[in-house]
Amino acid sequence: MKQITAGRPKVAIIDTNTLAALGLKAMLQNIIPYMTVDTFGSLAELEANTPDSYFHYFVSMDIVLPHRPFFTARRQKTIVLTLSLDEHSQMSEFHSLCINVPEKELVRSLLSLEQYAHGQGRHLPPAPSILNRKILSDREIEVMSLIVQGYINKEIADRLNIGLSTVITHRKNIMDKLGMRSVSALTIYAVMHGYVDINKI
Fold this sequence. Notes:
Layout: E1 10-14, H1 18-31, E2 36-40, H2 43-47, E3 56-60, H3 61-64, H4 68-72, E4 78-82, E5 95-98, H5 103-118, H6 138-148, H7 153-160, H8 164-178, H9 183-192
Parallel strand pairs: 1-2, 1-3, 3-4, 4-5
Helix pairs in contact: 5-9, 6-8, 6-9, 7-8
């Protein structure tokens, strides 16, 4: 199986549930912004689009089961989407990702998978240099780190010995500079850039 590695890394989501596929696509694009994520409603759709050009497949259990030989031959790049955390209900030969959990837990699971497989960019083409530029000030990085660890504005102000209004201003500036609107997106950014250890979120 030849894997095309030139250009942007590609990931495929194969799921009959369009809404779930689009939600996962948005999360994955937050984790690796320069990655191309394509969605397919069936294995036939994937097979019609050079399937071995993808780094990973995120595929629902109901598609894996009837097409097991295809995915078993590509088990290293297959992540099975499950609805249960029970290990007995998961397929032992594949990596699994439970998608029936709160957003924060799903983000953490996706980040854990990424760090395990591609920590420090392992096995991926180099990121565009613009993504490695420092965007935030040192103080904004400190504030962001505390936000994603679950501290509220008042606690951040106390820990950093700054005013509450200053924390609120930093928080707004961070979101504006990064173009983000949620703490989940901020968490992904902070972990992916090494500002926060995944075990602290």
